[in-house]
Design brief:
DNA-binding; alpha+beta; homodimer; 5 helices
DNA sequence: CTAATATGCAACCTGTTGGTTGCGTTTTTG
DNA sequence: CAAAAACGCAACCAACAGGTTGCATATTAG
């Protein structure tokens, strides 16, 4: 007997917001493929400034999707496993809710 | 043999952006549970204006997540099944990518 | 030590967002 | 028909987002 129906779903908004930008999505993709990369490396291909990239990285970190590691004069960024797994579950939860709605809609239409 | 690696992933940014707002997430949740609702109904609980709600609904519609139906003097909104399913698959794709990254990270750590 | 790397910090700028108010229009309801 | 309900449209606003430039700082390579 699900009490609330739409419980902690609200907390996922920041994660979606963080992923809701093409540049940020590219950074995430790069980190998925590249492991831990420095700001300079992540800036390499892009047409934007290093400072802009830094801002994006901090937005992603703010949503708990990344974390940084200082090594020498460079600052490496990598995916935050635990948080990512958590975000994934949120996405699944939403998808499940959507599936329910979908079924109801289809059942309604096909009647 | 996935040719690009991060292909149409970029196209999902608008969807994430649309979901990246608490108010919008609430609207989606309400429509998941309530089927087709009018603007007035969707505005009911919220502290914001009807016009504000309308804007949010149009943002969601712009991302292809909703669509509207005019009935009499009211305008009903409901989830867009096909698009939602599509969005779900995008989310799964990202999650899969993340899982890969996760495994690599874990394998690296546990060595 | 000195030059080159890799960043950090802060000010600044412009376009977008989330919201509002005010008023006109279309349907219903009595 | 007149009042009420449910909207649409447009102007306007403050705050925020995405980016940039300029300059200072910390590491590393020669």
């Amino acid at each position: 007997m699900r009490k609330s129906g739409t419980p902690a779903l609200q907390k996922t908004a920041p994660v979606f917001a963080a992923l809701g930008d093409p540049t940020r999505l590219r950074l995430v993709a790069a980190l998925c493929a590249g492991g831990a990369l420095s700001i300079a490396q992540l800036t390499a291909g892009t047409a934007i400034t290093r400072q802009a990239v830094t801002k994006h990285l901090e937005v992603l970190a703010g949503a708990g999707l990344l974390h940084d590691i200082h090594r020498g004069r460079e600052r490496l960024w990598e995916l935050q496993p635990s948080r990512i797994d958590e975000a994934r579950r949120s996405l699944d939860a939403i998808a499940a809710q959507w599936d329910q709605a979908l079924q109801r809609l289809k059942a309604f239409v096909e009647t």
